[in-house]
Amino acid sequence: MEIFLLTLHSFGGKVGRGVIKTFVLAFILSGPVENITSNGKEVVRVFACTTSLTFNLTKTRFELMFKPFSEALFGMKADVNEVKDTMRSIRDVSAPVVGEVEDETEMRKLKEENDYMDAKTGDSSRCKDIIAKYEGKWEKSETEKLEKMYSKKIELRCEDQFTRAANNCRDMFKTAYDKCYDAVTWIAAWLLCWPMKLDFVCNIAQALGGTSRCDPSKDIDPGFGDGYVYLKKSRGQFSENFKNVRLQYKIGKIKQLIDIRDSYDTPKAILHLVNAKRSILHKLLVVLKRILAFVFLRIILNAQTYLDKYLSDIQFNNVYITIYFRKIDARRRKQGKYILLPLKKIEKKKLVDPCTPLPLKTENQQLLW
Q1: CB of 150 within 8 A of CB of 104?
Q2: Do residues 169 and 206 make contact, with C-beta atoms less than 8 angstroms apart?
Q3: pLDDT tens for residues 164-206?
Q4: Is the preceding omega at residue 68 within 30 degrees of 0, hence cis?
Q5: CB atoms within 10 A of CB 293
Q6: CA 158 vs CA 111, 213, 341: distances in Å
Q7: Which residues neighbour 97 within 8 Å (Cβ) at sequence distance 6 or greater?
Q8: Nearest to residue 142, comparing CAs of 227, 221, 237, 235?
Q9: Domain Dendritic cell-specific transmembrane protein-like spans what residues (predicted)?
Q10: In degrees rounded to 5, what are phi and psi of residue 41?
Q11: Over the stretch 314-352, which tens digit does the pLDDT of each residue have?
């Protein structure tokens, strides 16, 4: 029982700390070593994968060198049809853009609607003003011509929106006047329904916008004409480039390699070697851990040694001021004999008072080291 209690005490002492340091050192050594072996295995696995990938790529390269004839001949018809479909899709995509910019059918319709409204209201022809505005500009290139044409179309569309709004407004005034006239007598209609005749207010929204209400110059991005011209040229160049397509190839001579290892055998051999080395290292670590496990016996031996010295040597570790010692000192004080307590300064360095919270210098050294 005494040895067991001393063993528990030794766990917190210098011997116990030494055992803990030993186990910590063992785990510190085994952890990185295990990690290094795992990383090495992963490196070998990646190398094996890279080797297989290189082999597959090389095999594919050889196949591409010797199979272009059959694939080109059998796939010629499908490739031609695919190119035709691509060309057709490009034309289908660009056709709405070309129609939006260059088609003048919509412009004629817009011009008729705007001229009709201007003639009905007695105003000057807005279409003539717009045409005169853009015909007076000097065209330096085809891009400026296209930008001017598209700007004119946008401005005519804007004016057409005002025209439609004015027509709808007049129709609303006319409908309101008819309903008012039918709802009351003709005398009351003459007095109450006359404001419905004031349809000139339908031109107020158009007049408030000013002359620049439909100016598209601030909304059209700079370089619009350049982009459109580039689109048309690209479509034409794409068609021209696919008219004369030639397939050229050259078969290179490959040297025959002798006494080489297959790509599948090399990774297997490397993995086998790495696993063998890893197994040996793992066994060495297991043996080392088991040897270090015997260090635990040092605590038991230290407890047994302490007990033997304590029972056989009265001077061994006899530095504590116990309760029994205090009783003896008090009895000697009453008898007028020589006493030890209180301790002198030099005695405090050698003797231990369990009641004081301050440790001795030697205890501090054992605690830290």
Answers
A1: no
A2: no
A3: 777 777 778 778 777 777 777 666 666 667 666 666 666 655 5
A4: no
A5: 13
A6: 12, 9, 115
A7: 228, 231
A8: 227
A9: 316-368
A10: -65, -40
A11: 777 777 788 888 888 888 888 888 887 777 777 777 777
